[in-house]
Amino acid sequence: MIHSTRQRNLTKLLRAAPFLLPGLLLYGTFILLPMLYSLRVSFYDWKVLNASLSTWIGFDNYARALSDPIFQRAVLNTIAYALVTVPAQIALGLGVAVLLNQPLRGRPALRVLYYLPVITSWVIVSLLFEYMFSGQAGLINYLLRDVLGVIPNNIRWLADPVLAFVPIHLLGIWKGVGWTSVILLAGLQSIPIELEEAAQVDGAGAVQRFFGITLPLLRPTLIFLTVVLTIGALNAYISNLLLTNGGDPLDKTHFVLTLMYEATFTKLDFGYGSAISWLLTAAVFAISIFQIRLLRRRVEI
Amino acid sequence: MRLSRQRLLKRWLAYALLLAGAVLVILPFWYMVITSLKPQAMIFEFPPRLWPAQVTLKNYVQALSKDMFGLYFLNSLFVAVVTTATTVLVSTLLAYAFARLDFPGKEPLFYVILLGMMIPPVMLIIPQFIIAKQIHLLDKFIGLIAIYVTMNISINTFLLRGYFEGIPRELEESALIDGASQMTIFWRIVMPLSGPGLAVVTIFTFLYSWDEFPWAHVAIKETTRRTLPIAIALFQGQHLTEWGQVFAASIVAVVPVIVVFVILQRYFIRGIATSGLKG
């Protein structure tokens, strides 16, 4: 009964195989292989109709993206989207969470209400915002012009390269607050109530307690949210595609991914599209690593 | 006495703010419902009404019959159900191996699987399209299902492994001594104890495949195989002004999600709060 290590390992592997194989097969075929494949495609002038005619062009696709004004504009648009929607979602979500953290009647119902936009598909809410922001008889123009009187004429929101981002940003915030508030509520509820009470006994006011105790203790949650939401914002795509047809007017309203989509599936430039998607992936990885650093530093203190 | 009055004031303020927020959340949905009930002639009426002057179900009838949204609903349902069942099966098997079995290369393999949680899903679309094209998965439900299952493997394996590790080992060990195989233990002991964990995975996978747009958008060109999100987006692209029908179809797509959410919200909230899953 003497087994060599190799034999023993083989036995273990054989016993684990039925559990591992289905998942690994799918994961390898549709995630690992595609990742490597797309890296390869990004270095080619890729011919999608006949891959064998593709030519190796090194970093040309990457260089082209970085020097392309449309890509640069798309990057700025995407960063602006993250800078506006991430803090807004966290601030509003924190407000809702603090309010919902009190013993109010009807709390579960309110929580369900606030969560509705989160579970509704991006396609539907994007079309809904397109209709509300329509340039003619749209609800928003009506409210701003006829009810509130803050604008003299109807605004053609989606025809303007800057104003088109108003509905896109508002949609991102509106759809995200329900989620951030649930996460923040869980964070608030994990703070021991004794801490708050002790501070209250010491005479700290509500505002002082919030900034002195609650916020610092929420730090890990806030970092987590910032990172997840930032990555989500960099990947924003559907709202822009539907509201501006991806880039209208004049390719000025692209996000990185709508540009990637257009390059790949409209212009069939798969190499260029792959290069853009790898640039985005690199940014996402950098942010993830930054997050791990931040969290680790907190633990060391 | 003064303290209680202050507390009362605070409570009223909280209610007022929460209700104001709720109105902002609900208003667009309300407008969608109203619009879906308006006859086409009143879609661009001015001023826009938040209470319909005339109510008709014509948009729903039209959307479900002539515009084939009934078919798209069934397509979505089929894809979502098969995706969810397959995902639960595949990820529980994987998670069990990582939680309980010992085999060479276990740790590195787990990290490779976790990598899937960091990759932006849309970046995979191009090579997935090329590969799906080569193995003839485009324009087929199986092509949607295969990708959806795969995209959910990482997060679910991660979640379920954590869940399985929380189940006491004693039961399994005594079964092992009695001569049961690992598969038997998995099916007879671990799975029945994992209800809440499986519920979280089921709900989020179902929601994901019900709402998924980017992959379906590139993988399905055949009209009769559309799922609801692409069907609604493409319908709007072709019928720019027929908002009544667009929103009738949207409501048909949203209602099941809301029903499931309201019934299972306990699991939803737990899933979100403990794992940071997004709906």
Describe the structure concisely for a colleague.
The complex is a heterodimer of chains A (301) and B (279). Chain A is mainly α and 301 residues long. Chain A is 73% helix and 1% strand.
Question: Could you explain how this protein is built, in words?
Answer:
The complex is a heterodimer of chains A (301) and B (279). With 301 residues, chain A is an all-alpha fold. Chain A has two domains: 5-56, no CATH class; 60-300, MetI-like (MetI-like fold), CATH 1.10.3720.10. Chain A has helices spanning 5-41, 60-67, 69-100, 107-119, 122-132, 139-147, 165-189, 193-201, 206-217, 219-234, 238-244, 256-266, 270-300, and strands at residues 44-45, 55-56. In chain A, helix 4 (107-119) crosses helix 7 (165-189) and helix 7 runs antiparallel to helix 10. Chain A is flat and about 70 Å long. The mean pLDDT of chain A is 86. With 279 residues, chain B is mainly alpha-helical. Helices cover 72% and strands 0% of the residues of chain B. Chain B has one domain: MetI-like (MetI-like fold). Chain B is globular. Chains A and B meet through helix 1, helix 3, helix 4, helix 5 and helix 6 of A and helix 1, helix 3, helix 4, helix 5 and helix 6 of B.
N- to C-terminal separation of chain B? Answer: 45 Å
CATH topology of chain B: MetI-like fold
In this structure, how is the largest beta sheet of chain B organized?
A: none
Secondary-structure element pattern of chain B, one letter each: HHHHHHHHHHHHH
Stretches of chain A where pLDDT falls below 50 for ≥5 residues? none
Tally of structural domains of chain A: 2
Number of helices of chain A: 13
Give the fraction of residues assigned to helices of chain A: over 70%
CATH class category of chain B = Mainly Alpha
Task: Outline the low-pLDDT stretches of chain B.
Answer: none
CATH topology-level name of the largest domain in chain A: MetI-like fold
Report the C-alpha radius of gyration of chain A, rounded. Answer: 25 Å
In the CATH hierarchy, what is the superfamily of chain B?
MetI-like
How do the strands of the widest beta sheet of chain A line up side by side?
1-2
Number of E-state strands of chain A: 2
